[in-house]
Every structure is written in structure tokens, then in C-alpha cells.
Structures
1.
Amino acid sequence: MNGGANPGDLPYGVFSRPGEPRRAGVRAGDHVLDLAAALGDEVFSAPSLNPFMALGPTAWRETRERVREAAGRGDHLVPLDQVTLHLPIEVADYVDFYASLEHASNLGRIFRPREEPLKPNWRHLPVGYHGRAGTVVVSGTPIRRPHGQRPSFGPTEKLDIEAELGFVVGVPTRPGERPGAFEDHVFGVTLVNDWSARDIQAWEYVPLGPFLGKSFATSVSAWITPLDALEAARVEGRPQDPKPAAYLRRSARWGLDLTLRVELNGEVVSEPPYRDMYWTPDQMLAHMTINGATLRTGDLFASGTVSGAGEPGSLIELTWNGAEPFKAADGRARTFLEDGDTVTVTATAPGGIRLGEVSGTVLPAT
Amino acid sequence: MNGGANPGDLPYGVFSRPGEPRRAGVRAGDHVLDLAAALGDEVFSAPSLNPFMALGPTAWRETRERVREAAGRGDHLVPLDQVTLHLPIEVADYVDFYASLEHASNLGRIFRPREEPLKPNWRHLPVGYHGRAGTVVVSGTPIRRPHGQRPSFGPTEKLDIEAELGFVVGVPTRPGERPGAFEDHVFGVTLVNDWSARDIQAWEYVPLGPFLGKSFATSVSAWITPLDALEAARVEGRPQDPKPAAYLRRSARWGLDLTLRVELNGEVVSEPPYRDMYWTPDQMLAHMTINGATLRTGDLFASGTVSGAGEPGSLIELTWNGAEPFKAADGRARTFLEDGDTVTVTATAPGGIRLGEVSGTVLPAT
């Protein structure tokens, strides 16, 4: 399992060799560069990227230069097939947004068919909520089908995925401090699969939002791609009407021309375009903190399901809540996830950018 | 500031002396017992109670015996007025429930006047959601009035409190492991004030729940009262109709006969009875994990606003969203919080039990 990331992007992860402690590494070809050994810096001996991420953009850029040189020398490279990859960050708070116009409209139509699909607030602020940080797991971790009230009690019959892009905060803020620019705080990006039990969610979510329908597991890539590697993917954000409040105005291009690819058992079922997202991640960061909430190193905020026209990032949209099955390559009609299914999300962008994949296989309920 | 807790309950906290690192202590009279020094155990040299809380009920009970002896000897006692009290736990995930029938009914009537006050799910499961762990602060921390969309942008005009009881998880679970009994995981209780900006909350909360209306600050007591100190307060939980699902059945008495007291600038405005809560904390724990979600040491889950008939735990209920002001001792008509207000929540129970207070003063918006 090499995690799919483009080695040229020099993405960061956490690895271990058998019997040895976890430590930070950078993907370089089919190898991991052992950062503590190669750069002689103890910050990389930590079992997560958090201490390094806390150092800030100057250190991130300098390290990237030194990593390039070190990888070229060929020392301290460990073959990928000799390591285990771990959750790369210690997640502080996990926030999930709802930033795709197509996704929010689709879910509104499905969950509230007699109402306007978008709530009145949706075009005025990036709607979001806190998820469970303690159940964020690394790509490859099996996903156990959850039980819950659907409203009758039992294993979910509507296990779904949400293909998302996640943003990892490196530089925290102190109480009373407003965050600076997006790139002064955000270290990098990761792919996210926010596994969802739609029957549990539909019953529980009023009025305080999703809870157990989401909190059993959220998968992230083993590799964090630093912002600096995404230069070629940056584009203007999608036009917004009405004009957002002053604190939500964009001052730099943080739209990203990434195309996600959702594979179910190896078969591509959707290719959602991230560049069509309504709210950009700089706006999410500004919103999340406008009330004075502080940032911590390791905060993870995700975009919400990335859905474009005809390219949804979830099965509930693809199959219209199961009413419109699709035919899989094996000829079977499919709706929600079955035990044994493997879902893999990847993403590419111009310039050869390739994010680390996020993958998981469904285990039967116990 | 001694924090209000009953020294006889031997509550745990984290303190420091000027120029010295944080460490664990137990309230003993007007002193803090320096646990690392008194018991010679490094687990108490940590800057939070988490390492100790992770040890489990046997260690908790043994420590309580040793603390009783040590406090009696009179060594290693630091006068309370010579220490600073800190956030006693490192908060992992923070979950807030909505367990009071009176509170949920009142909020339903206020926020959704044309609908049934309780949503169909409410009597079937303890409704809850994840809050922001990174902005949980210790009692005494000033609370800055937050900005946000109300929906026009500006400082909240409806700053409120929520008087709650919080439960702190000590013993974690592994993936796939169902939690054991409530008292095998939960270390103790704390008072919580979940500060709320009602105008921000009312605009943002559909469909994914409260976010910025809550995430600016949540205050907890400086003292965690261990479960063992609450024996005399334990009562049967409130009768429930319909009968809850099997996983939510009560097997022990975890209703608590605590009476909260909410003081605004020293004047008692409400005395909510915790024993009338509809959902008990053992049910909250069972619900939170029934989908396979793991527990971490430091997880904090709170009851939601404690409101009894005529004794609400929030100002939005006390003043019916500001429509029915009350007259304060100084003769002024009052609704929501004003800059400079101090709110203090305390709680007592039979047998002289007294939880550590949670207090905060409102600072003007910047």
C-alpha cells in the first residue's frame, strides 16, 4: 500500500518499521525518507506531524528544500513495502463543512422533499459542524458497519461515503488573536472519506445535527500534501451571489482544480470536480474563527461532500437515496455499501499533482 | 478563588505555583494537596489529570484512600491562595446532549413556534452533538462577546448561558470494544457553562446543528468531583415513556439529586434540579458508543441545559427569548447577558456534596 500520492509533491506522513516507534517521513519514489535521520531534527521523531506543523510556513518551506536535497542524495530512504503507515496527524478538532451547492441541494431534496432544498442561511455562510476527532482513522483501516436507531435498532442499511477534501491546521492562534492569511495557518491537504449511515442520520439529525450517523469513522489519507505543492492547482473560487459578508471576502485564489475519483471495488463511479465548490477553504477558516474560536495544531476541517453536476461524491446522491440503483461492472444493481466493499478516493490536478488516496473496506456488523 | 467544591469530596484539579509547572492536586480544606509530592507517583506530575484518569476505577479508589491519609498528615499542602488553577483535563472530544425534557420543550417552542416542540426522535434517544474541544476553558476565564451573523454581522445581542453537568471519561475503549459499566469508564463530574449566542445559533443551526453560536467558549469547573464522592446523590432516573431500546435500558441508579444554582452578579436567578433530567448519563454513554465510536481518556460529555419546571438553566428560557425580562436586585429589567456580567453556577446534593463552581465574566466585543 503506497497510498497513491505523487512522490514529486513530497507529501508528509508517519511511518514505522517493525518493532520501531512511529516517526515522520516524506514520500520519495517508492521510498519514505526518514526525516529525523536525514535532517537530524528531533521534531521529526514525534509520532505525528503536529510538532513540525506547528513551526509555520518559513520552516515548512525550508524543510521542503532540504527534503528535496536529501531525497536526491538517496540516504535514509526506507522502501515503502517495509513500513506501516499511520494516522499522520494528531487530530485536535474536526469540523466538517457543507460547501458544495450541488451536494447541499441534493441532500435537501432527498431529506426534506416538501421544502426549498437550500436553507436560507446556506448562501450566506459556509454551514459546518463539529465531528468526532477520536474516530478519524488512516486510510486502509477497515470500517465496521455501525448499529443504531434507523429508527428501529440494527445495523445500518444505508452505509454511504462522502468524498471530501480536508485541510490541516499547523499554526494555532492564541485567545483573542484573529488568524492571519490562510497559508500562514494551513499546512496541507488530505483526502477524507466521511463514512455516513444515512438511516441513522435521517432519524437523529434534528435539531442538533448529525451525530452517530457519522461518528463511527472518518478516514483520511496517509499522506498530507503541503500547500506549496498545490500551486499549479490554484484557481479562482466559484462566483458567489449574494456577495458574502466582509469577513468572508476572498483575498487570494484558494479554489483548487482537483478532480476527485471515487472507486467502488476498483470501478470508477464518480469524478467530482473540487473547483466547482461554492465555498473555498479560506472562507471556511475565516468563518470557523470569526466568533473568537481559537485554532489548534492538528485541527482538521473538511469541505463536505464534493459533488459536481452529475458527479456526486456520495452514494445517496448517485442512487437518489437507493431509489435509482446503478449497474456495477459485475452486472449487479447497487445502491448503498455492502459488506466487503472497498471504496477508494483519489484526486489529481494539473501539473501532475496526485493526493494520497483514502481507502477503506466495509466489515460486517458484529 | 477556591472554586467552591466541597473539600470533603476530595475533588481533583490541576494547579501551579508561580514559576513552576502544572501538576495534579486534590482540594483539602483551604489547601491543595500536591499529589506527586504526597504520593510519590509521577502520574500526578502531568499537566492534566488524563494520565491518572486513564488508570481506572481500582487505581482511583486506592488513590482516594491514600489521599485521605495524606491530607490528614498535613504535609504537602499548598494554600489555595498561592496557586493558580488550570483546566484540569486535556479534553479529547466534547459532546453536548439535550437531556432535559423541559429545556428541549422550551427551546422547541421558542425556535419553532409553529411546530410540535419535541422532534419525533427526542423520547427515543438522547439527542446530542459534538462541540469544540479546543475552546473548553477553566472556570474564571473571561468570556469575550463573540461576533457573527445574526444574520446581520456584529456582536451577539443574545449572549446566554447553559448550566449543565459534565462527565469526564477516564478509561478509553479500543476499536471494536463495547464499553463496560458507566463507572468503569467515567472518572467524575464537573459543572459546565456552555455559553451560547442565541441570535447566531438561530440563523446557522439548520440543518447541521449549532456551530459558531457555541464554539467560542465552554467553561468547566477547576475541580473534578470523582464518582465515588457522589454516592449519596444517586437516585433512580426519571421514568421514561416509551420504554427505551435495549441498549439504553438503565441497569443502575445514575440519576443524581444535584440542585444547580445559577447566579447572575451574585443574585440567584434559578435553581435547576438535575434529578428531573429525562436521560441519565449512563444512557448518554451507551448511546454515544452504540455505533462503534471509541472513547478516549479526556472525553467530556455534558447533559445539556439543566432545566426543571420553573427553574430554567438558560436565560433564553427564563426571559422567553427576551420577551419577558426579569427585574434584577438593582431594579433593572434584564434579559440576555451584558458586558461585565458575571455568571456563576454551583451545585449541591444531599450529604454535603458541593461541586466546584463554574464562573465567567463577559468582556465586551473587540
Note: The CA atoms of residues 42 and 238 of chain A lie 42 Å apart.
2.
Amino acid sequence: MTIKFFLDEKEMPKQWYNLAADLPSPMQPPLGPDGKPISPDMLAPVFPMNLIEQEVSQERWIDIPEEIMKLLSIWRPSPLQRAVRLEQALGTPARIYFKNESVSPPGSHKPNTAVAQAWYNKQFGIKRLTTETGAGQWGSALAFACSLIGLECKVYMVRISFDQKPFRKVMMHTWGAECIPSPSTDTKAGQEVLDRDPDTPGSLGIAISEAIEDAVTDETGKTRYTLGSVLNHVMLHQTVIGLEAKKQLKLAGEKNVDVIIGCAGGGSNFAGLSFPFASDKINGAKIEIIPVEPASCPTLTRAPFVYDHGDIAKMTPLLPMHSLGHDFVPAPIHAGGLRYHGMSPLVSQGVVEGLFTPMAIQQLECFEAALMFARTEGMIIAPETSHAVAATIRKAREAKEEGKEKVILFNLSGHGLMDLNGYESFIHGKLADYVPTQEEVERALKVMNGYPRPEIRKTGKW
Amino acid sequence: MTIKFFLDEKEMPKQWYNLAADLPSPMQPPLGPDGKPISPDMLAPVFPMNLIEQEVSQERWIDIPEEIMKLLSIWRPSPLQRAVRLEQALGTPARIYFKNESVSPPGSHKPNTAVAQAWYNKQFGIKRLTTETGAGQWGSALAFACSLIGLECKVYMVRISFDQKPFRKVMMHTWGAECIPSPSTDTKAGQEVLDRDPDTPGSLGIAISEAIEDAVTDETGKTRYTLGSVLNHVMLHQTVIGLEAKKQLKLAGEKNVDVIIGCAGGGSNFAGLSFPFASDKINGAKIEIIPVEPASCPTLTRAPFVYDHGDIAKMTPLLPMHSLGHDFVPAPIHAGGLRYHGMSPLVSQGVVEGLFTPMAIQQLECFEAALMFARTEGMIIAPETSHAVAATIRKAREAKEEGKEKVILFNLSGHGLMDLNGYESFIHGKLADYVPTQEEVERALKVMNGYPRPEIRKTGKW
């Protein structure tokens, strides 16, 4: 029985898919400090105009430039694999597939957008990129992309992950990038946080503030900021994952897929796999599409759909999204890439409209799932990915109880070879679950008092 | 232009290729303590009989059991990739291909034999396996295989690597194996070394002694020892690499290959790629086949072809091989997997007969090559693999000088994500070259004074 399905490079998608064109309600615009929609050129100090155009595009399909295709072909198309041994261990009638994004040199799905963003910046005449990173997947991916394309790169890495995953910075150095822990004294935003709380573990929200400040204060005008998730153009670049997976499921002989699963921090790996299938769902297909988040950072399952800043220092525009409030500092779980107070507006809106049905899972269940995956399928996955695997196991057990031959597809967003500290702690019983109390959530949400609320029609169709 | 060449699982080789059947001279037998050839059943306390049969087989082709094929298909066939961006950076007319063995879950070629050895042991009724590991690639691979097949596993890891690469042991734990630094106090052999030299960095030779002692002293008789390199059956299992590569070169449109390159410690990744091509060379093809070793452990380039023990405590039979003497402790280079005093008898004999033309390269040139590879091809390779890349760069530059369109194929034996300490040290200028003086080599060779010498006809044909 074949368990891996490869596509030839010639079959790589030639266009990205833009879910914004198909959502029942139009996307709500980002708002400026005055509460009014911001125009594309207000973003120009932060992003190059060619990416801003993608950010606001309503086109359903956007051509992938040939040079980006060439860079992607270093590791793409990624394999679709069937988890036969996991199925057997669970005794489930479900057929479990995963899209293996860990095969990229930095080890995750992140380079799909990193090479695209670096390429568009280079086209626009930019010389240097800044960014933040949580677990280090995104920072490594951007360092990798900048190395291939020829740009300078500075990465602000959330301090707790910087300490937990020391080798991530060496990867970035190997690709020629600079990487420092955030909050840092290199920016005003970082310095302010350190003054208030010298022992802070840091957060993605803080690191974003630092990276934006670095970009917009460069007087040469040749530095721009990049974000590894959340924004529309990032979701767009990731859709190659789902577009490839559709072709590969056909190769595997599957006519339908019942459940699509991806972990969700800022939303990009979930979006990358699911959006092309969401398009089918909008057109009538019956598919359960599940973003999985950590119970310690329950953005989609416990936070409202609001207008909020993407960062703690309120340097980003207000984005329409599920948010726990820009001051929320998530518990120090090992899935650093999921420690984010907000969520992609596109994913958020898909949840509001009922297209996606989110799930929150605790850290211990996720590591248990990761260990089971390692001992059946042989692969050591990232703690972020373990959320998708835990949800997959839940759904496969459900299929067993129901006696249904479901087809489940999840996104294996990255390997865990840089996250072995987490495995060691789990194996030795040193990890804990964290769930914010209702009071903590409410307190965090207060920072958005008085903020405008996005208006959106709930279709109730799904 | 296509740069990755995949094979369908259905095209996986169904038989292993045994070079022993085609070498001009017959292999010299291993010798016992009395200097007489040892019989297969003298090896029975150490290895199961089904593997001993493979060890001494003269059959050209040996069937791969279907269940082993299934396990291999978790990651095989591995991709053949073309290093276009490296070619461009070098400005060479050579076409450079590599077989990417880093795609296995443990990250190297080692699982090719680990799953085979674990499977044969399980068939033979064995419950527990012991082994040594240098850089940790082999130990991880065996832990992975034992996890999939259901065997207990204990790994003695060379101390310097245990310290340099702390996460390797966590990988082994994740797959359920035990891993301790060697020399250890768990064995008599380890204790003796520690008594003599408490600060020893350890060596593969010492760790082998410990793992064998552990296996043969288990009174239940259900423990056996496994070796990740050197032995004939290990080379055999690795030949899937070269057999796949041949088919993939055809897919890439190449009719001939001019140069085959693999790094060589015990010889297994080199053998895996090169033996199927060596068969062509024996039958008249013009191919340069290069095993690359560290200049700090110059087994093939500076040591004689002799009978020597595979381990420091002289627990193994005498093997006919190039050896620096079983007491030789190589300098603490980062390519831990190449720190071995001996060499596969099959590879050694191939060198004596002129089939293979070895090359020795220093650590700094290798890391320089690895950095160039990371910044052109995007992949961070193992320090062991960097020897193959450094040799590839030398040959590609040679092709440029000669203006020849050569086809070069090297084995990318593993990724370097567990070896980032080495990269960090190199980037910060903290690494050094090590070359033993002629006097040091001669002193090390003295331990073999009075040992029998293998007799072998040098064909002088190549």
C-alpha cells in the first residue's frame, strides 16, 4: 500500500487562492488611530506596496511569480502522507492523512510566505527586513529566505523561546541573520516593557512592536517589517499547502475529505491547508474544518471578535479579529508559535461565519499525542503541530465510536527537532496545563473598552 | 527546470546489492583470538544468526523482506536533488546532484539498516538491543527502529558527542530508548577506561566495547548487539540509496555519472551510495568514486590495510581493514560519526583494489563548505556530510578549471539540526584543524605489531 503521495514540481500551484473573494461578508478594513479605515499608503512605512496590494486584494486567484516558484521548488511540493500506523494503533476506521510541511530546510510551513515576502521586498528595492519570532520557526524561515534572496535580516525572538530553544538562533546565524531576545534594549518599545517587568518571558505582541519600530525608524527607508502570520497576504502565500493537498488526495484515491485540521496561533498553517477546502465548503461540500488552539491562549474559543492591535505597543492598525486583548501574555507553554493574543482576520471571520469550528486543547494532551505520533509514525513533531495531532486523534476516536470511515487531513506544520526540551520535560512529568480563569480573560479584554466593533453578518449557513 | 526527482514507493529496490560478490579478490575472513578464521556460530552471542548469514553471504542480490520494505516506505524512496544554486555560486559547468538521506525521521541514512537489523533480531526472538553511537545519528536511528518494531534499546553514546549534542538523547528518549554517555560505569570495559583516564572524550571504539559487553553478559540470552556501520550486512542494507539514485539519475536525464562522493567514518553512507555504482565500474564504466574522511582521522589515506579489532577492548574479531589501531582516539572534531579508527572491510578492500580513491579534508574547509551549502541550497547539513560537500566543491572547481561538464553525485547523509553547536563555534572562529603527526600515527599503529596481515591481490585495474 502506498503511503506517500508526491507531486511533480510541474504540478505546483501557479496561483495563490484568496479566501477574501469568497467569504459571504466582505472583510472589515483595518482602522487607524482615529477609528477610520486606513488607506494602503498609510502602511507604506511598514510594508512594500506590492505586498500591501495583496493585503487588500479581492481577487480570487493571484499569480505566483516564476522566481518564487523556483525558490519554493527547493522543497515543494511537500509530500502528502498517510498515517497508517497511527490508524492501526487507534483501531480507527478513519483514514488519516497529513501534509508534511516539515520538509522545508527551516523545518516548517513558514518559508512558503518567507520567500514570497522577501522576494517582493527585494523587487521593491528594500535592503533589510525585520521581524519577530515565537518558537523560532518564523525567524528561521525569514533568515533562510533572506539568505537565498540576498537581504539583511534582524529577528526579535520572544525571550522564553530564545532560552528554551537556543539552537534556533544558530540556524538564523548560519543563514547570516541577526537574532536577539525580545524584549530588548534595542528599541523604545522593548525598553519600556523591561522597565515595567524585567523578568517578562516576552510575547509575540511585544516582539512585533520592536520589529516594527526598528523598521519604521530606519532613516534610509530601506528597511521593512515582515510578519509570519495573521495578515491576509500571509494566509494567501500559504494556500499552496491546501492546493497541493487537493491534488494529492486524488492521487491517494480519495474523492472526499471529511475533516480538515490545523493548529492555529496567528492562523497561517491552518489557513494554508484549509482555505482551498473552505472554498469547496462555501460551494456546498460537507467538510468539518477545525482550527486548534492551546487552551492556555483561547483566542478563537473564548475571546470576542473585536477590533484590536496586533501588538502590545499599539503600533499596528486595529484589525478585525478574535483577540484576548493586546496586553494578554500567554502562559509559557512550549508551543511558542501559538502564544498570540490575536488571530488572522480571515480565520476569525471564517469562525464568525461558521465555516470553521475551533477547538482548544491543553498542553499535556498535546504532548501525549506527539509521543504517540513519534512512536507510531516515527516523526518528532513541533509542539505547535501536536495540537493538530491531538485533535486528529480525538476525531479518529470519534469515527471509531461512530463506526464511520472518515477521511481526516491535518497539517504537519513542522518538526520538533528544535523543541526537544519540551519533550524531555514532558517525559519526566515536568509539564503542566495552564488555563486562564474567566476573570483573567475578562481583565485582559478590558484594554479594548471603547474600541470600535467590527460589523459582520453571521450567515448561520454552516 | 525540475530539481527534485522522486520515485514512487512501488519503484523501491526489492533486493539489496552485495559488493562482495563482485570484488576481484574474495573477502578475507574475520579472525578469532587464535588468529584462525572464525566460524559463523562464534558470532552467535553477539548477533542473531539471520544477520550473520548476511554478513558472510556471497550472493550478489539478497531479497528485502516485505515488512522491512513497509517500514522503509515511511520515508523512502528519498529524493534525488540537483544543487543548481550551488553550481551557480561556483560557476561550474558540472551538474551536482545529491541523494537526500536527511528526510528520514531520525535525520540520516542510518535507519536504512536500523529497521532491517531490528526486524531480523525480532524475527530471531530477541527482546533487547544494545549499541554505541558517535554523533548520535546511529543511536537515534536504532531507537526509532526499536520503537516501530517493539524492542528495548540501550545506547552508549561517545561522551564528547553526548555533551556537544544534548538533544540527541532526548530524541532517543522520545522513541523510548535509554541513552548514557560512554565510557560509563555500567560495564567493565567502560570502568577500565575511566580508571585510566577519567577525562577521556570517549571514542566509538570504547563505546562498542561497552555495548558488546552489555549484550553478551545478559544471562537471559535475549539481548544482542547492533553496529551502525563497518560490517558487511550494514553496507548491504544501505545499498538502497545507490539503487534508487541510479533510477533517479535516469529521470533527471543523465546517462552517465562521473564522480560519486560520500563521507566515510565506518563507511556505511559511502557504501550505500557508491556500491551499486562500483558494480558498474567493475563492469567497465568510468567513474571516480571518492570516500572522504576527516584529516584528523585519516584511516583510508594514512593507515595500512591490516587485521585489527573494531573496538578498544578487543572484544570484536580481527577484521581486515584500514586501521589506525584500536587504541587511536581521534581529535574531538564535530563530525563525531567519522571519529573511528577503522573502516568497513568492504570499503577498505575496494580502496586496496583501486576501485575507490579516498580523500582527507580538514574540519575548517568542511564547515566552510557547509556554510556555503546552507546559504545557496538552504539546507543545514551534518558535520559528517560536510566532508562530502567539501569534496564535491573541490571536484566542481576542478571541472570548472578543466571546462568539463561533469556529473557529480554526493550523498547528503544527514541534516545538521542536532549539530548547531559546531556551526556556532565555526561562525565565531572557535574551531580548529587537527592533523595527527606522522609520529602519532606510527605510535598508534604499534598496537597491531605481531597481528596477522590480510593477503589480497591488488588488481591495479582501476
Note: The CA atoms of residues 195 and 214 of chain A lie 19 Å apart.
